[in-house]
Design brief:
Blueprint (H helix, E strand, L loop, with lengths): L1 H18 L3 E9 L5 E5 L7 E13 L2 E2 L2 E15 L2 E12 L4 E12 L5 E12 L7 E10 L5 E10 L3
Antiparallel strand pairs: 1-3, 1-10, 2-3, 3-5, 4-5, 5-6, 6-7, 7-8, 8-9, 9-10
Length: about 160
């Protein structure tokens, strides 16, 4: 009886470990100009500008999650820019090839030039999904670029898991 209990316990641990196994992912996002883009100077003498933007993006280097390819999505973010430095945070809503959705919270810091080009780096966390991605968890990092024409992109790396 004791051996059977230990065997069941070991089997349970192995099954639960399989349920939470992380799968590595990486991809590249290409993003259009922000639409809308709202900027407000704070007027506090520091030169700080607060921005609220929505940006449409497409995966140009894709990956699969739960056997389905990522497709596109949009990000809504708030940023603070002062003296060429930026702090951003926001939410990305992504769509899979089959129509399932996933939700990401992200934050970054970066540098911006007078022509509005720049770079950033940050972290992100999956906050759930629909369909095959229900219960999605994971996290990762990204490096972003902004071009002077308002377009941009990001190199994304991380890991995810979904309950089986």
């Amino acid at each position: 009886m004791k051996t059977r209990f230990v065997s069941l316990l070991v089997l349970g641990v192995l099954v639960s470990a399989g349920l939470s196994a992380q799968t590595k992912i990486s991809g590249t996002l290409s993003c259009a100009k922000a639409d809308p883009m709202n900027s407000i100077e704070t007027g506090d003498g520091s030169g700080t500008v607060m921005n609220l933007v929505k940006v449409q993006c497409t995966w140009t280097k894709t990956f699969d999650m739960a056997g389905v390819a990522v497709k596109d999505g949009y990000s809504v973010s708030a940023s603070e820019a002062q003296a060429g430095k930026t702090k951003d945070h926001g939410i990305h809503v992504g769509t899979m090839a089959n129509g399932d959705k996933y939700y990401v919270h992200f934050q970054s810091t970066g540098m911006v030039k007078p022509d509005h080009s720049g770079t950033s780096s940050g972290t992100w966390t999956f906050e759930g999904g629909t369909g095959k991605l229900k219960g999605l968890t994971g996290k990762g990092t990204y490096k972003g670029t902004n071009n002077a024409d308002g377009t941009g992109g990001a190199e994304v790396e991380g890991e995810y898991s979904v309950p089986k």
